[in-house]
Amino acid sequence: MIKIGNVEIQNNIVLSPMAGVSDSPYRQLCREMGSGFAYTEFVSTDGISHHSKKSIDLFRFQEMERPISFQVFGNNLEIITEACRIIEDLGPDIIDLNMGCSVAKVSHRGSGAGLLRKPEYVGKIIESMTKTVKVPITAKIRIGWDHDSLNYREIVHVLQEAGAQAISVHGRTKSMAYTGFADWNIISEIKSFAKVPIFGNGDIHSYAQAKERIKTSGVDGVLIGRSAIGNPWIFANVDKSTLTFPEVRAMIFRHLDLMTNFYGEQLGLVLFRKHVAKYLKNYFGVSELRHKLVTTPSLEDFVGYLNSFNPDHFRMETEEDKEVLNCETYATV
Ligand SMILES: Cc1cc2nc3c(=O)[nH]c(=O)nc-3n(C[C@H](O)[C@H](O)[C@H](O)COP(=O)(O)O)c2cc1C
Questions:
Q1: Residue 283 falls within a domain, yes or no?
Q2: Residue 36 and residue 34: Cα distance in Å, rounded?
Q3: Does residue 125 sit in the same domain as residue 189?
Q4: What are 90-110's pLDDT values in tens digits?
Q5: Is 119:189 a contact under the CB 8 Å cutoff?
Q6: CATH code at 188?
Q7: Under 8 Å CB-to-CB from 53, ≥6 apart: which residues?
């Protein structure tokens, strides 16, 4: 069990915050499958402070998701503080400051990973957040802006001194974006001197690998991002490649149901398209089915396509399949 302030976390493998992916339906599903807590996608403090409905709506959640961490991003102390005051009334268990987003329109404006360049100011922001709200404040960082400015030691020190109660570390720099590999030696080093719980993050592809990372780096927990998209089973230690078509289909229906209940039928179906494409990724012989599912505007047809699919040949794609596919593509060029 991990404690973030007074919040108890029962499981140390957690769904990473992902804009457009880790919404309430998907968080619910991953919590059911074993993710240790729910982490919202990042929400702009500018939007929150203007009481934008679109921003505030991103914090809608179900009680079963608790503990839930609301993640915010911004670059201004007063606005971030005001946003914390506003969202505390919505009942989060934790509020997290995003210091890792590498996207230019966020980081180049001094938000997300842009905050890594202003350690002193970050200290003031975190201090102000902790003084303003009663719930624990945490931060999610990268290891530096680029390889010439790896300032994770200073950043972690500043965060702790200012009152942050846990830190998540994506082991890349801002300039790496998603290239190369997360540096787990640095994550391990951070754990060795940190006084607060550390969640390591980056390039974890399975439950077994998550456990291995926890063991070898010593971190308190890990976050799984991309490998959890279309794969909630990862939190239950179930290898997706062993599943039958009816098992995959049952999960698709369950997720779709959560989406349509949450967003309404039309929007829920449209937003579900990217998920269903990921559920069916790397399976052989499903390209026609996938195409129908991601284009149909009808919920009834969507369900019909899945129910009438012949699962006899359903299996994971092999390297040989991929080669054949490449040759076919080549032949049509
Ligand atoms: C589509 C997408 C959206 C993301 N949105 C967020 C976000 O809102 N907040 C955040 O802290 N990180 C966000 N991230 C970063 C992930 O949480 C995670 O740190 C990163 O993907 C590395 O972990 P992974 O290798 O397990 O994917 C996002 C990543 C992806 C792929």
A1: yes
A2: 6
A3: yes
A4: 999 999 999 999 999 999 999
A5: no
A6: 3.20.20.70
A7: none
Q: What pLDDT is recorded for position 329?
A: 53
Is there a single domain that holds both residue 280 and residue 177?
no
The rounded Å distance from CA 176 to ligand 1 centre is 13
Same domain as 270, residue 185? no
Distance 16 CA to ligand 1 centre (A): 6
Nearest CA, atom 14, ligand 1: 18
Same domain for 193 and 307, yes or no, is: no
Domain with 135, as residue range(s), is 2-236
Q: Hey, what are 74's tokens?
A: 């911004």
Supply the pTM of this predicted model. 0.95
Q: Hey, whose CA ends up nearest to atom 5 of ligand 1? A: 18
Best residue among 18, 101, 181 to mutate for probing ligand 1, ranked by most atoms within 8 Å of CB: 18
Tokens coding 6: 């007074």
Does residue 30 carry a catalytic annotation?
no
Nearest ligand 1 atom to alpha carbon 41: 8
**CATH assignment at residue 281:** 1.10.1200
Residues 72 and 212 in one domain: yes
pLDDT at 313: 72
Q: Do 149 and 57 have their domain in common?
A: yes
- Cα(181) to centroid(ligand 1), Å: 14
Which regions in the chain score pLDDT beneath 50? 333
Rounded to whole angstroms, how far apart are CA atoms 134 and 218?
A: 29
Domain count within the chain: 2
- Give me the pLDDT at residue 311, please: 84
pLDDT at 230: 97
Q: How far is the CA of 105 from the centre of ligand 1 (A)?
A: 16
Residues 211/222, Cβ–Cβ less than 8 Å: no
Q: Which one of 116, 226, 235, 275 would you pick to mutate in the ligand 1 pocket, going by the greatest count of ligand atoms within 8 A of its CB?
A: 226
